[in-house]
Design a protein that fits this description.
436 residues; alpha/beta; TIM Barrel; 3 domains; ten-stranded mixed beta sheet; globular; binds zinc ion
């Protein structure tokens, strides 16, 4: 058996807001920099992307799809009639076409130029039946995000509620950028499913592609082996999930639906009698002052879950009422079975990571995500030291120190879970706080 680093959910230029330069060659380049071995194709039901993949992917002796030295799993994301996104994997091109044909009568955009992530007018259970009956694998994408996800506010609280009898055909869930294993294992209904941590990348930028991945322990990089690992059969398994530290995700913290400011609580000593009346508003945050932040937050989450909390910033500035929405962490507080994670025996470890590009940006004090200085430094360290995943996880700190002292100290702190974060929310990524 061998270990394959795998990112199994990406998109194509046929989904909105995806880089036009995302193609097999640029994907392969990034995979090599990161240390990725298997990648999802993204958007495989879209006719042009399907044609492109079919004419470029070769099958190796193990029946795994390959382009240059990188392996591919035929993959897409589908939105069902509950507006839930589902990740789908296909064994071969025949099953892609078969499922495309079966879904076409229920979809207005599956054959469109912009149908990369098609919407189908089918319930989650109906969609699962169609995919599974044609040999595909399916599970909820970014399961806890406040939009388009199975566990979002005012949607489902358990897998069973959503999939009903089709639940036995769902073997995995995708955690999403703002959740990790510690958060998800507070729900007892997830104890038997396998967790995937995938990037959902919209570009080949190494900051995006492979920012989350899974280590698969399998015999060869074929669909059949991936399926066995997801079902945890014949000793095939995922041995590690690595993903963004949840606070870096775009939806960790609760936020105003309109202005997207995140809601935080700050302890003050001065006695405050009335709850939620003392606050300050900045560009990105609403900060409530309280004598007991934990209790105030609990109370606030409780009211927000009932759609009762109004954004004070929008009230002041727009004279209108807009609701506060729960982020991933607060939604999990509301629907969780346990206060502390209860990991089942099969659950692999999870590493809360930071993309190397972002570590370099912080160390250099550069805000721009497309800075040439940052990208050149990134390429240099990868070339001289190791692929990104090795630098993040395995490369001895003294070797990184020889390259850059400040970078080494941040990587050391992150490996020891000593990094402080400003939590993301409302579509804005979180940030690491470092003082060098
Ligand atoms: Zn999605
Ligand atoms: Zn607002």
């Amino acid at each position: 058996m061998d270990i394959y680093n795998s990112d199994l959910h990406i998109h194509s230029p046929h989904s909105i807001a995806v880089s036009k330069s995302l193609n097999l060659d640029t994907m392969v380049q990034t995979c090599k920099k990161k240390g990725l071995n298997i990648l999802g194709t993204g958007d495989i039901l879209q006719p042009e992307w399907l044609k492109y993949m079919e004419s470029n992917l070769d099958k190796d002796e193990d029946a795994a799809f390959k382009y240059k030295d990188i392996y591919f799993i035929l993959q897409t994301e589908i939105e069902d009639q509950e507006s839930i996104h589902q990740v789908v994997f296909f064994p071969d091109f025949n099953s892609v076409r078969e499922i495309q044909k079966k879904l076409n009568p229920y979809s207005k955009n599956i054959l469109d130029e912009w149908g990369g992530r098609p919407r189908v007018n089918l319930s989650p259970a109906e969609l699962v039946d169609i995919v599974a009956d044609s040999g595909g694998l399916i599970g909820p994408a970014h399961a806890f995000t406040p939009f388009k996800a199975i566990f979002r506010q005012n949607k489902f609280k358990t897998l069973k509620e959503c999939y009903q009898d089709a639940i036995k055909k769902v073997t995995f869930i995708e955690l999403g950028l703002s959740a990790n294993t510690d958060l998800a294992d507070r729900l007892s209904c997830l104890k038997d499913v396998t967790f995937l941590s995938n990037s959902d990348a919209h570009s080949q930028n190494p900051r995006s592609l492979g920012r989350e991945f899974n280590k698969f322990d399998i015999d060869c990089p074929s669909f059949e082996e991936i399926q066995l690992a997801l079902e945890r059969k014949n000793n095939r398994k995922i041995t590690l999930n690595l993903g963004l530290s949840p606070m870096l995700g775009k939806y960790y913290n609760m936020f105003c639906h309109k202005c997207r400011r995140r809601v935080l609580f700050k302890k003050v000593k001065k006695k405050i009698d009335t709850i939620f009346t003392q606050y300050s508003i900045s560009e990105n945050f609403i900060i409530f002052y309280t004598n007991d932040p934990a209790k105030a937050k609990e109370n606030y989450i409780d009211q927000t879950a009932k759609d009762k909390m109004i954004c004070p910033a929008c009230q002041e500035k727009l004279k209108k009422n807009f609701k506060i929405k729960l982020g991933v962490s607060e939604r999990i507080d509301v629907i969780s079975t346990y206060d502390k994670p209860q990991h089942p025996d099969h659950r692999p470890p999870y590493i809360n990571a930071i993309p190397l590009i972002d570590i370099i940006r912080s160390v250099r004090g550069i805000k721009s995500t497309s800075s040439k200085t940052v990208l050149n430094f990134y390429d240099k360290i990868i070339k001289e030291l190791a692929p990104e995943f090795e630098i993040l996880i395995d490369t001895p700190i003294n070797q990184i120190e020889n390259f850059d002292k400040n970078l080494a100290s941040v990587i050391k702190a992150f490996r020891n879970s000593e990094i402080d974060y400003t939590p993301g929310g409302g579509g804005i990524y979180g940030q690491i706080k470092i003082d060098l």
